[in-house]
## 1
Amino acid sequence: DGRKEVLGMWVGENESAKFWATVLNSLKNRGVEDIFIACTDNLTGFDAAIHATFPQTEIQNCIIHQLRNSRKYVSYKDLKALMADLKAVYAAVDEQAALDALDTFGERWDKKYPKISQSWRANWANLSTYFKYPQEVRRLIYTTNAIEGFNRQLRKVTKAKSVFPTDDSLLKMLYLAMMDIT
């Protein structure tokens, strides 16, 4: 119905495909029938876990994560111009215009930073999903910022106490924080 809602909290050693399959199966067992679109930070195995549990789900990799990854090895003097050229890709009016902008980006930057356009092309299937939707909706589905902001607020709570005797004690503290945040 258009509201953001926390559907659960899980504690895991790492974010593996097996962990995400457990999370998604738990959601399905609790009544989630389908996920329309999932915006992910391109974790290994996450796409496979989503499609195994909810086969019709469309995947959108977070553009902000892709941008951060792209700028990681760029010289400071090139950063502003390079990011402006990348903006022409992800802010394009449609997918074809984005691909044209990516070609233009590659022509300008591939000699100096070839891995950037290679990464965008390799991940294009999941980076371009949001182009199927109207401009008004794209900002809602092209980034994981909503969940990242929520997680940042939870980290503030756990930062003060770095050791928890049990997973249950951690979950209790996170639950109380979540109730306060939401």
## 2
Amino acid sequence: MKTETTIQGLTASLSPARGARKMIGFVPTMGNLHQGHLNLVREARKLCDVVVVSIFVNPIQFGPNEDFENYPRTLVQDSQMLAEVGCDILFAPTVEQMYGTQPRLTNISVSGITNDLCGASREGHFDGVAVVVTKLFNMVQPNYAFFGEKDYQQLAVIRQLVQDLNIPLEVIGVPIARAEDGLALSSRNGYLTEQQRALAPNIYSSLKQAEQALQQGQALAEVLQQIKLNLTQVGFDVDYVAARSLKLVPVESFNQDTQLFVAAKLGTTRLIDNVFVKYTG
């Protein structure tokens, strides 16, 4: 596995693959990797001749009270893990390499689907995601890009971005990786205390109970309220519990395939999760 820290080096490393018209797969990450990230690399390995992974903690997608400075940087460990699962090129640029030294005057916003859910409480977050992902797509020029479905809203934003800007690649969503107790794998799980970690799987269990209740005919509003109640009672500070169509349009009743979403804090750690609920009529 090659490691490149400059755009020039990345371009040089990818030049032979581009010249041979090989299929390039790309997995953008912020590092501190876990099995969910490695699953993205494994999926890329199945479809592509060359797999590129980026590790870049993107400052412009963090809000003023979020954890940019404390976000774990574990490049040596991450590099070893990536080599073991078949990554060909690791791109690990600095902030200066990504954004230069002059003020950035260009922004990218995807409207509508960024207005609520995580967008409502993380102002500017998805603009920061859109900018960095577009820059990385331009640098890597992949045929496929792989993203986890845990960040379902982010996945929808990136798909919209690719469609609207005619970026010539296919976005692949990869199912959520979970711990044995159901907790969605996340780099932020490492912030949880032992007691909080024991409580964290309540998010997924509440979502699965809600799925069952909907399929048994319980009203959607009651089901969403029950999720919030379950989590509040065990100590979560709930940001939102929501139901959306697969394209993130709000739904009032369970009369179509539906995605259920939760964002909640344990202490200062913000956790998100979602489940798909099949509508059978």
